[in-house]
Amino acid sequence: MNTGFIGIGSMGSMLIRALLRSGALAQDEVWAANRSPAKLEAIARDFPGIHIASARQLAANCDLIFVCVGAGDTATVLAQMDPELYPGQLLVTTAGVIPLRTLEDRVPCRVAKLIPSITQEIGAGIALVMYGSRVTPEDRNHLENLLSRISQPTVVSESLARPAIGLASGGPALLAYLLQSMADQAVRSNPELSPDLARKLVQESAAATMRLIGETNMTTEEIIRRVAAPGGMTALAIEILSQHVPQAWQNVFRTAADRENKARESLVL
After folding, report:
1. What are the respective helix, strand and coil percentages of the chain, to the nearest 5?
2. What pLDDT does 266 receive?
3. Exposed/middle/buried for 129, CB within 10 Å: 0-12, 13-18, 19+?
4. Which of 6, 73, 188, 203 has the fewest CB neighbours in a 10 Å radius?
5. Strands 110-115 and 126-131
6. SS3 (DSSP) at 71
7. pTM for this structure?
8. Residues paired with residue 110 on neighbouring β-strands, in sequence order
9. Number of neighbouring beta carbons within 10 Å of residue 161
10. CA-to-CA distance for 7 and 146, rounded, in angstroms?
């Protein structure tokens, strides 16, 4: 099955590279289109067997099409592909704000939504998948088998999309920020502690904690209970965090949902 990628930015490039490096796709099965020739030339240098094409040429030759552009650019891309789109194709958008029903009303093909994570660069992490009403069992099997080579594909309903995206796709950045902030504040509170040592301590502790959870099935609650002994300094730290962190997360998820709702209201395909 020929597979097309429209939009070779950060997300589209990551998907192509991860799927090719994993062997999930062969180079001669991949078609790529992008507004900027420079990005196409860069990926063609690394994978000389892929097909470089216009959006219309890609639509005419591919049964599975990943549209990896922002919601604001999707209408333009669909207009370019319109003459070649047909019901037997599966079109997958990575624009989380676009409702699947809106996309189904716009194109003749079957549609799905994919929200990848930066962790797919190492063949790990969650890739969120949502399906439109016309998707067949064969479509689902093919897409999930493809994604399973670089991720753990996880199907969610659109009603759960916003919090799921925040946890799975935004999660690496949010966790990285927390680790960075933890190290930076430790340095500010203890000037003799070097930034390099602080970040090493935090990063190694985080990596070991994730390994502990993965290899022992230990829950986060159990880790807290075993480390934060009553009356100890870690227990005090958690008590302080509990007064501020839940409210911060509440604001994060509420604000993200409000912003997405406003963006959806103004969307035109």
Report:
1. 60, 15, 30
2. 86
3. buried
4. 188
5. antiparallel
6. helix
7. 0.92
8. 90
9. 20
10. 19
